[in-house]
Amino acid sequence: MKKLLLATASVMALATVSAHAADIARRPMPAKAPEYVAPIYNWTGFYVGINGGGGWGRSDSAAPFATAGSFNTSGGMVGGTVGYNWQMGTFVWGLEGDIDWSNIRGSAPCGATTCETRNDWLGTFRGRLGYAAGRIMPYITGGLAVGNINHNVVGVGSANNTRAGWALGGGVEVALWQNWTGKLEYLYADLGRGSSVLGSDAKFNASLLRAGLNYRF
């Protein structure tokens, strides 16, 4: 009788273990979490922004009675930006315009007086071509530049001319957060020569280094 009870208990224990093992085998393995893939950033759209920086360049002054040789100009600038981008694959085409208050100026002796060249405002309207590397977009840009050349012959007179020229450069723009982007840009702008008093004239060209913050709609 004892042997029968022991045998029965052993069979029941073995059946319980087998059932438990089968239950474990039927349980699904934990699923592996899907790998995170960052959303693709799309540069298409309208934007507005602000920009600021500085410029440096060369000017000269030529007059019938005196000539100032080539001299340095420099100063700060700040203004606003508006533009639109179209993204096609990894390439981004765009149009951008800006208008800046400028204080780029310089002077040099000319005869018995001083000749000064000053730029009070500068605007550009340019095309842009960029390469979208995710949230970073390096680009090249070029187009029209418009601004004033203020030529002052101290003690004689001054004249202010609005001139059209060209601008060429490049930069990099980075998506910061939500709809905001930041950029760092270099432009070379040339407004040619502007006439002044008594038949004198002066030229203006400058290298511009600006940072900007844009909001995309």
Characterise this structure.
The protein is mainly beta and 217 residues long. The protein has a single domain (45-216), classed as Porin (Beta Barrel). Helix content is 12%, strand content 69%. The chain contains 1 helix and 8 strands; from the N terminus they run αββββββββ. The protein has one helix at residues 2-26; strands spanning 45-62, 67-88, 91-110, 113-131, 136-153, 157-177, 180-195, 201-216. Strands 1-2-3-4-5-6-7-8 form an 8-stranded antiparallel β-barrel. The longest helix is centred in the N-terminal third of the chain and has 25 residues, at 2-26. Mean pLDDT is 84; it is low at 1-22.
Topology readout:
Layout: H1 2-26, E1 45-62, E2 67-88, E3 91-110, E4 113-131, E5 136-153, E6 157-177, E7 180-195, E8 201-216
Antiparallel strand pairs: 1-2, 1-8, 2-3, 3-4, 4-5, 5-6, 6-7, 7-8
